User: Fold this.
Amino acid sequence: MSNGQNGAELRLVTPGMAIGPLAGKRVGSGTIAQNDTIIATRLGWTKEFNNTVSVDPINSAYMPRSGDLIVAVVAEVRNNLWFMNVNGPFQGLLPMSLAPWKVEFGAARQHMGIGDVVLARVQEVDECHNVVLTMKGVGLRRLTQGTTVRCPNQSHRSPSWRRQRNRATPTRCSRQPHHHRRKRKGLDRW
Amino acid sequence: MGGYGDVQLLREDGLRLDGRKLDEMRPMTIEAGVLPAADGSAMVTHGLNVAVAAVYGPMEAHPRKIQRQDRAVIDVRYNMAPFSTSDRIRPGFNRRSREISKVTAEALESVVLCERYPRSKIRVEIEILAAEAGTRCAGLTAAAVALADAGIPMRDLIVGVASGKVEGIVVLDLDKAEDNYGQADLPVGILPNTGEIAFLQMDGDLSPDEYNLAMEYNFKAAAEIHEIMVDALKRRYEGGEN
Assistant:
């Protein structure tokens, strides 16, 4: 099938629902294996790609991953860092060393205050969910115009749907599924 | 719960006072996503019970002393609204609501994959708007649907259901009169797909045979309620592919 879908078609599943027999398949995100059966752990759409079965949740908390491009809002300012609201369970930390400006100790407030919005990238996430952000990179900047909107999770959409949406609307969002990103980087081994 | 010999709870035709059969459940409806501000929510009406559950999180656990480095904590607050019964309930926590909050949290911890969210907290608020016996089961069912609606990873849904004994006969899903004047009450939390029991309380006495029959009724009802739960979750997102 096209768009990385092979085998099972998109199907809405609820937690605990059996998706199908394990039969040599690998369990991806949103699924667990129990007694040779793949069980959904989230409410969402099933997906099968590269012999891996996963569930794309309809509604879930954002869990940052290294490399994600995100819109973050300044929540707190300290002398040498900013705490950013990344719309996840934990705040992200933007140290002044990873800001795009030369920031003197104690002068962080002069560059960004509470409520300012930035385009940043997730630099690092450790096992305790400490999130470090960076603004060093092409296009990463403080956002001074435009409107941020909350939209439902569209990760189960096909890339063609996303391309069509980008053509039809002024959005610049281009979220790609994790496997596409990895493949583009040449990291297609799981 | 010794029973009241002079209170008739079964009719001469073998049916119960409200016309139900011994193994018949009160009508139940579930709606998911009733509170737009919550990350996940659900409303359960079960007979005359109305329970609303809201889920917030996962979020950073505060105060930090409640954080667990390897898993999330589930913070459940069960509360009965002052207007939920004919006798006004004094607002605030009481012994009963603390107990139900605790046992509900422990039941939910057995299905939620807490290890996915270390140091965080999942807040579950259960509000009973109308009570007619069986509110802890309605609250548990509502909480499970709300957790699924919030996208919290769970290894199964959990269904709250109760059986009991009136006039020496085991019946499913006690109503108010049966709860007040019956001889036993057996609320359980069942994982419908695996058949595991995550929560069990018993008030009163049941013989082993009565217990087995009550559990048989509970499992049968859990399968019915599970279908309603799944239907509610699917209904919320029907046409979700468009």
User: Anything to note?
Assistant: The radius of gyration of chain A is 19 Å. The first strand of chain A starts at residue 12 and ends at 13. Chain A has three helices and 13 strands. The domain at 69-143 of chain A is CATH 2.40.50.140 (OB fold (Dihydrolipoamide Acetyltransferase, E2P)).
